[in-house]
Amino acid sequence: MAKIAIVYFSANGHTEQLAHAIADGIKSQAGTEPMLHPILPSDITNGRWKNDSIVASLQQADTIVFGTPTYMGGYSAQFKSFIDGCSSIWYSQGWKDKLAAGFTHSLGLSGDKLNTLTSLMVNALQHGMVWVGNSVMTNSNSPEGLNRLTSYTGLMAQSNMDQPNIGPGDRQTAVLFGERIAQATLRWSK
Ligand SMILES: Cc1cc2nc3c(=O)[nH]c(=O)nc-3n(C[C@H](O)[C@H](O)[C@H](O)COP(=O)(O)O)c2cc1C
């Protein structure tokens, strides 16, 4: 069974809903299993994240999917503390040749989310990982539209202040993104 870790931070639940939708897409593909790992503020001390059991689980994974809300046009600080907390893995290239993918959620239609996805991708490439983009074809920019924000570097989603839940198009795009990640994992681990 190929293991796909989804590691994410979410303060208000939207990024977490995306993580679960991606997991649903992964579960729909026989032979792959998702592992959800929220980044918890209680694991951050003096600005640095540490959780040995999550690090061990990520080491077991064939693929790691990274998710964070976009804050000030980039990572949330909580997610960056996780990224920096894993920098020692870079020395030994412990994640080399795992697949990687990324997703982000924000309030603005743009919100500069591309910068967040690009940063996630650069981190993965520094680790020697192989980046999987989002291949879901856009079909409409309505709330029901697939890949309505037309992002191919990774998954982008957006909700307004008064929307506690992600919209149907963003949710379905996340499910399809999860399916693609699972299919890519199965091919890569052959
Ligand atoms: C400190 C901070 C900075 C933010 N910066 C941005 C931003 O640059 N662009 C944007 O569209 N939304 C921005 N937002 C809104 C967040 O992206 C939004 O609250 C988040 O995606 C909600 O995700 P969550 O429910 O998973 O916590 C910001 C929010 C906070 C708290």
Structure description:
- The chain has 190 residues and is of the alpha/beta class.
- The protein has a single domain, classed as Flavodoxin domain (Rossmann fold, 3-Layer(aba) Sandwich).
- The protein has helices at 14-27, 52-60, 77-85, 87-92, 113-126, 168-188; strands spanning 2-8, 32-38, 44-45, 48-49, 63-69, 99-106, 130-131, 155-158.
- The strands form two sheets. Strands 1, 2, 5, 6, 7 and 8 form a six-stranded parallel beta sheet that branches.
- Strand 6, helix 5 and strand 7 form a beta-alpha-beta unit.
- Helix 1 crosses helix 6.
- The chain is globular, with a radius of gyration of 15 Å.
- Flavin mononucleotide binds at residues 10-16, 69-73, 105-108, 111-112.
Provide keyphrases for this structure.
190 residues; 6 helices; two-stranded antiparallel ribbon; 6-stranded parallel β-sheet; 38% helix; binds flavin mononucleotide; Rossmann fold; alpha/beta
What order do the SSEs take from the amino end to the carboxyl end, as H and E? EHEEEHEHHEHEEH
Q: Judging by the overall fold, what is the CATH architecture?
A: 3-Layer(aba) Sandwich
From the alpha-carbon coordinates, what is the Rg to the nearest angstrom?
A: 15 Å
Helix content: 25-40%
Q: How many structural domains does the protein architecture include?
A: 1
How is the CATH topology named? Answer: Rossmann fold
The proportion of strand residues reads 15-25%
Report the major sheet: 6 strands, parallel
**Helical stretch tally:** 6
- Which regions contain 5 or more consecutive residues with pLDDT less than 50? none
Overall morphology: globular
Q: What ligands are attached or bound here?
A: flavin mononucleotide
What is the CATH homology-level superfamily?
Flavodoxin domain
The CATH class assignment is Alpha Beta
Number of strands: 8
